[in-house]
Amino acid sequence: MQFTTSSEAASQLATDCLIVGLFQDQPFDDDLTALDQATDGVLTRLLEDGDLPRGAGKTLILHALPGIKASRMLIVGLGKAEKFNGIAFTRAAQAAGKALRQSRARHAHCLLANSPVADRDESWKLRHAAVALAHADYVYTATKKPKDDAPPATDSVSFPAGDAAETQLAIAEAVAAGVQLARDLGDAPPNVCTPIYLAETATRLAGEHAGLEVEVLDEDQMAKLGMNALLAVGQGSVNPSRLIRLSWRGGKDGDAPLALVGKGVTFDTGGISLKPRELMEQMKFDMCGAATTLGVMETVARMKLPINVEGVVAAVENMPDGKAYRPGDIITTMSGKTVEVHNTDAEGRMILADAIYWTGQNLKPAKMVDIATLTGACVVALGHHASGIMSQDDELVEELLGAGHAAADRGWRLPLWDEYQEQIETPFADMKNLGGMPAGSVTAACFLSRFADGQRWAHIDIAGSAWQWGKPESATGRPVGMLVEWLVNNAGGWSAL
Ligand code: BES
Ligand code: MN
Ligand code: ZN
After folding, report:
1. How large is the average pLDDT for residues 324-336?
2. Mean pLDDT (whole number) for 466-484
3. How far apart are CA 231 and CA 431, in angstroms?
4. Ligand 1 pocket, 376 CB below 6 A?
5. Which of 122, 313, 395, 442 sees the fewest Cβ atoms within 10 Å?
6. How many whole angstroms from 272 Cα to the centroid of ligand 1?
C-alpha cells in the first residue's frame, strides 16, 4: 500500500473511496458538513433515518453519492468523543481498512486524521491512520491462493497534504514494513520458517539496507563460546540452531547501542516434556520475539534512525529425539552458571540465557530488552491486549510502558521482586528452569535476570500479544510499534527525524 498526499477538497477528489469518521455524540465536523452540503443533504437524511454507523468500529459504504467525485464513501463510527483515545483511533482505522479491502476500491482518500483524539497531535494521527490501514489490508497468501473473486489489495491511500504529511507518511511506510515482516515470519509454517530461514531473512535485510550488517553464528561457533543452554534446546532437531545478529550503525562510532534480543523457537513441541496434541500447531508462533526483532531492525534501517541498534535472535527448534536434552540434565551456560532442567518445555529461558549473556558481554549495550513468547501464564494474566513487562529497572519500565501507550501497542508491568527468586532454587545447580505454578511469567523473568547481571535490562513477554486467535488467526506484528517508539524516543523523538 502506497501513501500519498492530496490538497484537493474532499468533494472534488476523484478517488475510489473517501474514508470519513463519525462520532456518536458530536455534530458533523467541517469535512462532513461540506460533504453533506455537496451531496444535497444525503448524510443528514441518512442520519435522521438512523442509517449512519455511530458505534465505534462500525462501518457503512455509500455508493455513487451525487455531488462528489469519489465513487464511494466509507463512513466509520468513532463512538463517543470522550472515549476516543489512541487505541480507539487505531481500532477505528483498522476497521476502516478491513471494510476498504472488502469494498474492492483500489485507491482511497482518508480523512480519519481530522477527528480529534485526546493527547495525540496531527503527526501521530496521520502516521497511525496509515499504519493501521496497511495493517488491515493484510491477507495471508504465502501458501494459499486467494479465490479469483477475492477482494484485491488496496494500491494507494492519500491523506490531506500538510507541513508534516510527507515525513509522517514515509515513517508510516517504514513502520508498516517492519510490522509486515514480523507478521509474515510469524505466520510462516515451521517447515519453512526454520532457524536457517530466520538467518537468511536477516542476511537478506542486511543486503537490502546500507548500514545494516549481519553476523550469523553456527553451532560450532556457539559451542566454542560455551553457549550450551541454547545448543541443548536445539540438539534434538535436524534443523541446526543459529545465533543471528543485525547491527544498525546510525549513531556515532563508539556510542553504546540499544539491544533487542528475540526468542526464535521456530517450533516448540515441548521436547521430551512433550506438549499436549491440542493446539500444538500454534507453537509456530514461538519465534515471534525473533520476528519482532527483525521487523524493528527493518523499520530502523528504513528510517535511518540516528542511533546504534543491535538486534540479536536466538533461533532453535525444540523437538523430542534420542539426542534431545532431558529433564534432569544439568547444563553449564555461557555465563558459567549451571541450570538443572526440570521441564524441556521451558526452553525459551534456556536459549535467552545464553543470548542475553552474549549480548551483554559482546555488544555492551546501554540498555537491553528481550522479547519472547515465553509463558502461557502471561496469556492467563493479561490476555491478548497487553505485553507483560518485567524489570528491576524502574526507569526502563517507564520508558517501555510510555512507548507502548504512545504507539497504541500497550504493555503492563508485572513485578520482578527478589522474593520470587526462591522458586527457581535447586540443590543440584545454580538454578532450575522451572518455578512452579505460582507467577509463572515472573519466575521465568527471574531466571533471565540472572544472565543480565550488570546490564540495564527488561523482559517483554509477548505470549498473548504477538498473535491473535480468529479474526483470522494470525501474527499481530506486536510489539514492533512499542519498540520502534522506544528507540525513536531514545533517538530524540519523532520531531527529530
Ligand atoms: N512457548 C511457550 C509459551 C507459550 C504458551 C506461548 C502458550 C504462547 C502460548 C513456552 O516455551 C512454554 O512452553 N512455556 C511453558 C513453561 C512451563 C513449562 C514452565 C508454559 O507456559 O506452560
Ligand atoms: Mn515451551
Ligand atoms: Zn516456547
Report:
1. 98
2. 94
3. 18
4. yes
5. 395
6. 14
Q: Which atom of ligand 1 is nearest to the CA of 275?
A: 13
Q: Which residue numbers are catalytic?
A: 275, 349
Q: Which residues pair with 467 in a beta bridge?
A: 475
Are the C-beta atoms of residues 183 and 465 closer than 8 Å to each other?
Answer: no
H and E: helices and strands count for the chain: 14, 19
- Helix, coil or strand: residue 48: helix
Q: Which CA distances in Å does 4 have to 68, 173, 385, 437, 481? A: 20, 11, 31, 52, 21
User: How many residues would you count in the chain?
Assistant: 497
Please state the separation of Cα 73 from the chain's center in Å: 31
The mean pLDDT of 330-334, rounded to a whole number, is 99
Joined grid coordinates for residue 134:
496497511
2-137 classified as CATH 3.40.220.10: yes
Residue 283 Cα: closest atom of ligand 1: 1
Which residue ranges make up each domain of the chain?
2-137, 178-490
Residue 135 is predicted with a pLDDT of: 97
Confidence of residue 497 (pLDDT cuts 50, 70, 90): confident
Strands 258-268 and 242-249: what pairing? unpaired
Distance 262 CA to ligand 3 centre (A): 12
DSSP 160-210: E--TTHHHHHHHHHHHHHHHHHHHHHHHS-TTTS-HHHHHHHHHHHHHHST
**Per-residue pLDDT at 105:** 96
What integer is the mean pLDDT of 24-48? 94
pTM of the model: 0.98
Residue 496: per-residue pLDDT: 85
The whole-number pLDDT of residue 492 equals: 96
347 lines ligand 1 (CB under 6 A): yes
The mean per-residue pLDDT over the stretch 225-229 comes to: 99
Return the C-alpha cell found at 438: 505460582
Pick the CATH number of 178-490 from 3.40.50.12780, 3.40.630.10, 3.90.1150.10, 1.25.40.10: 3.40.630.10
- Phi then psi dihedrals of residue 315, to 5 deg: -115, 120
Residue 469 confidence (pLDDT) above 90: no
Q: What share of the chain is helix, strand, coil (3-state, %, to 5)?
A: 40, 20, 40
DSSP structural state of residue 256: P
DSSP letter at 429? B
Q: Report the nearest atom of ligand 1 relative to the CA of 265.
A: 1
Decide whether any atom of ligand 1 lies within 6 Å of the 377 Cβ. yes
pLDDT at position 484 over 80? yes
Q: How far apart are CA 233 and CA 231, in angstroms?
A: 5
- Would you say the CATH fold of 178-490 matches that of 2-137? no
pLDDT bin (cut points 50, 70, 90) of residue 471 is confident
Q: Is 104 helix (H, G, I), strand (E, B) or coil?
A: coil
Ligand 2 mean position, distance from CA 201 (Å): 24
- Tens of pLDDT along 108-132? 999 999 999 998 999 999 999 999 9
In the predicted structure, residue 54 carries a pLDDT above the cut 80 = yes
